[in-house]
Structure formats: C-alpha cells, structure tokens
Amino acid sequence: MYLPAQFKSDDQVHARTLMREHPFASLISLDDAGAPYVTHLPLHHEERSNQLVLLGHCARGNPHWRYLQTRPQALVTFMGPHAYLSPKVYPDLARVPTWNYLAVHCTVQATLIEGPDAKDKLLKSLIADHEPAYAEQWRSLGSEFAQKMLSGIVGFELRVSDMQIKLKLNQHRPESHAAMKRAYAAGDDDARALALWMDRLALGSAT
Known about the structure:
Largest sheet: 8 strands, antiparallel
Distance between the termini: 32 Å
Structural class: alpha+beta
CATH superfamily: Electron Transport, Fmn-binding Protein, Chain A
CATH architecture: Roll
C-alpha cells in the first residue's frame, strides 16, 4: 500500500492490538484467471517461534481455498477505525478535508488445514476470541453434527512473512491535533476509537 514515511509504523504491539480489536480481515489471492479474489473473514492470530500465524477458514464451496492451495502466497488486510477529518481543525483556511485510518497488511504463505481435529481446534480458537461461552454449546451438539459442520469448511494457516503498518492520524500536522482529538472524541464509534489511538501515539496529549 502507499505508505508515506509520516504514517509508517514498525510497532508490532500496535499492529497486534489493531488486529485483535478488528479481527475481521480481507484475504486476497489471485484466481485461476489472474484476477484478485477476496474473502472477508475473521482471523485468529498467535505467535509460534517468534512468527505471527493467522488462522481462519472458508466454506468448502468457496473456491478461495483452491487458489491458496495452488498459489500459497496471499495478502491479508486488517482495517481499523477510520473517519473523515474536516479542515475546520486547522487554524488557517487554506486546507482541504482528508480521511484518517489505521491499517495492517500482511503478506502470508498459506497451508490448508483439512483434518477434523485440527479444524475443530481452529474453530475453538475463534470461539475463544469472540464468544467463549459458546464452547460448551458447540461441545454439546454431538459428534455427528460437529463432523457435518467441519466437513463443510476448509481451514488454513497463514504464516506472515512481511507486514506493513499504516497509522494515518495527521501526524505531520501537529497544529491540528488538539481540535482533531476533540472532534473525534465527540464523534461516532470509529471517530472515538481514533481519539483513543491518538492517546496511544501521544498526539494532542498535552491539551
């Protein structure tokens, strides 16, 4: 992605926080015709021997898993909070609007997960991320139902080989930070989340 120096981050803690708080990602591969193919899905992430690994699955009817099998390199994008920025935050009038946002792009190498036990473990990781109490219900549904559900999906392990982190919060315009933070703090959920990220990055923290 386009990554100007003022918005580029190498902070892995920020990246993992963003991925944990916004786990609904876009998995992008090339289809058999060479065109981009996108699946939107939640991903679980974990560390293995100092390498970040993303785990997810798609429906067996979705051809994406076949594209991953044939062409294992893919791109995963995580989009964090984003919001419009009015030029009213600047002390002068010769300004234009912009849009602030946070994003992480991961280049990955995919390996399919086909075994029922491995897929069950993958699902339990996702359940633990989003609704731990559902684990008991999943176990109570019985092996026949579970096997039917598991046969309908293909899991995959995505090993991250490269990562780009973009935190676009008007870092290069410090004169706007105080007003921008007030505007975002009074806005919708995304805007308020950006105000919190301004605190994490110490932008406008002295006001």
